[in-house]
Each structure stands twice: as structure tokens, then as C-alpha cells.
Amino acid sequence: MPDAKPNPLFDISGKTALVTGSSRGLGRAIAEGLGDAGARLVINGRKAETVKRAADEMRAKGYEVLEAVFDVAVEEEVEGAFARFDAEGIEIDILVNNAGIQHRQLMVELKLADWQRVIDTNLTAAFLLGREAAKRMIPRGSGKVINIGSLTSDLARRTVTPYTVAKGGIKMLTKGMAAEWAEHGIQANAIGPGYMVTEMNEALLSDPEFDAWVKGRTPAKRWGQPDELVGAAVFLASPASTYVNGQLIFVDGGMISVL
Ligand code: GCO
User: Fold this and answer.
1) Which residues line the pocket of ligand 1, CB cutoff 6 A?
2) What InterPro entries has UniProt attached to this entry (predicted)?
3) Which of 114, 118, 132, 195 could disulfide-pair with 82, CB 3.0 to 4.6 Å?
């Protein structure tokens, strides 16, 4: 066997990846993973200081990082961010729509404003970012869009209905993007994480009953670590996936496959 060397199929050197909501959690892990595969990173969040802190930490580790502070759920801010990229000659080759929020409450108690906030951030934002990215990718004839779905793209759970509706929407948004953009050399796909160890899930992780449920219900018998999404992300961001379109790949320790 020849000496093992990195497979060029998974090489994304020279590409620029915008990962929304990437100062921490899944977004941060995905961004660093794409950076390890060679990409220059554009880190996003709503707060300048949080984004700067994350970007500085990542630079200290050797990543090439740009900062983009904007709210993914506000159309003018998304358009403004892409206008700035244009002005600075930054082409987004890889877009990861990761930013997400959770709001846990029974539906009969749920306020419209909370429903709307969750839908806007978890679903509408992916449309807005996808639209602005694709407008620029189409003339170039290439690009990668990776939307972050969830187990709840397919399964409901009490108390998180707005989130599950948004994540179900992500599944169809991804197919819609594939339907319109595949012919332009853009691959749009999604990753569906299972129960992962993140700050967003702190309340669930620290609830012994919920923790036991996740471990019992997941064939892998454990929660996932954020960096376990990196393999799927690099695959979907790289030349390895040039004929993969509209798919939702679950990275969930097998949970979606069993009762
Ligand atoms: C929740 C969690 C979700 C899950 C995810 C699993 O409250 O249900 O916050 O983010 O971890 O849906 O895919």
C-alpha cells in the first residue's frame, strides 16, 4: 500500500466557508473541522465581542478567520453582510446554516412571538442566507450549502414544536435548494444531528431522566460530541459530494433508525 496521504476528494483548501452561529457549540466545531480540511473561515454571531473572542481563539490555534457580525434572522442584516463580502472580494464557497435557538414550552402556553422567533432563526434565516449565497454561487457554477437539520426534522417531541416545525422545514428547504440549484453546480444538503453535548442542551443534559432516556433510546448509548459532525460536514463541503443533492444525513448514533 502506498503511504497514506490526505485524499484530495476531501480537500477544501482555498475555499471560504461561512458558518452561521459559529462562536460556540456545533457551529464552532463544524467551522474548526472545515478549517482543518483547509478552508478559510467566516465566523458569525450577533454580538461583536463574542465573535471576536471566538475568532481570536481560533486564530491562536492557526485558523484563518474573518468575522461577520449580523443577525441571521434579519433580512437587511443578511443582505448587508453579503454586500460587505462583495465589497471586500470575499466569495463564500461553502455556507453552513447552523445558527439556531430553542424555546421549550407546551403549545397551549406558547406565545406567537416565541413561535415566530424560533421559526425566523432556525428556518427563515437558512432561506435568506441561502438566497444571498446562491445568487453569487450560480454565476460561478459551484458552491456548497449545508443546512443543519435535526432528529426533529422527522420526529416530534413535546415542548419543542416550533423548533421541530423549523427543522422539518429545513428538510424541505434543502430539497428545494437542490431542485433549483443543483444544475448550477451547487450541492445543497443537510446534516441531522442527534442529541449532542452543547450549551443549548444543558437543561436536558443535567436532567437525569432525560439523560437516561437519550442514552437508552440511542443505539450508541451516549450523547454525541460536537466534533462528531465534522466528518459529514467535510464530506458535504468537499469535492467528495459533487453528485449528492438534497440529502439529510443523520449523525445521531442511530437514534432515527430505531423505535
Ligand atoms: C431539544 C434540543 C434539541 C435536540 C435536537 C436533537 O430541546 O430537543 O435542544 O436541540 O438536541 O433536536 O436533534
Assistant:
1) 102, 104, 150-152, 157, 160, 193-195, 200-201, 204
2) KR_dom, NAD(P)-bd_dom_sf, Sc_DH/Rdtase_CS, SDR_fam
3) 132
